[in-house]
Specification:
With 195 residues, the chain is mainly beta. Helices cover 13% and strands 34% of the residues.
Length: 195
């Protein structure tokens, strides 16, 4: 069941949903608007002929910051990682979905490729997978409304919330855009074979 604005406010007051900073105007009928933070990870031209998912990808990106007075220009077909200004925390019986704003979708801005689901127990800023599918460049401004988060209550609390040691949660507590940590799957498999 999707939480209404009234229930979202109740859960925030109870500390079961944390959104910081939060302005009352950002609470919509069934979601909360989120804003674009300053930091971006831009994929730079590399001598690598392809992205090898078995390798640490941090060397493929360059960190930039959006100037408070000037926009970052996202060109057609370009893909960058950003993050929300807001720090989000979820109780162990609440899941959330990140979605784009319809006004941005109508100009060709996609804010996530696949990472729209936020697990119970999550704590941190959300990484955005920003893509321009339009034919013209799109301006991105620090602090602009970039997406919205909606919440659902689960049937019970989870046994192992996101961030539990046994899950090996890779992005818990992130405070900036974070590159893929998929290579850790392969590192763990190799370590398992070597033991």
């Amino acid at each position: 069941m999707v939480l209404s604005d009234r229930t979202i406010k109740e859960e925030i007051a109870a500390g079961r949903i944390v959104i910081e900073p939060l302005h009352k105007r950002d609470i919509q009928p069934a979601s909360v608007d989120l804003h674009l933070d300053r930091a971006l990870l831009v994929f730079r031209n590399s001598s690598e002929p392809f992205i090898d998912v078995r390798k640490d990808l941090t060397g493929l990106t360059e960190r930039l910051e959006i100037d408070p007075e000037k926009p970052f220009i996202l060109h057609p077909g370009e893909f960058v990682l950003g993050s929300t200004m807001e720090h989000i925390e979820l109780a162990t019986d609440i899941v959330a979905r990140l979605e784009g704003k319809s006004s941005l979708g109508r100009i060709g801005l996609v804010i996530h490729s696949t990472a729209g689901y936020i697990d119970p127990g999550w704590k941190g800023q959300l990484t955005l997978e920003l893509t321009n599918v339009a034919r013209l460049p799109i301006t991105l401004y620090f602090g602009m409304r970039i997406g919205q988060i909606s919440f659902q209550r689960m049937t019970t609390e989870v046994d192992r919330p996101y961030g539990s040691a046994e899950l090996g949660s890779r992005y818990q507590g992130q405070t900036d855009p974070t590159t893929s940590r998929l290579h850790l799957d392969f590192d763990e498999r190799r370590a398992g074979r070597d033991s």
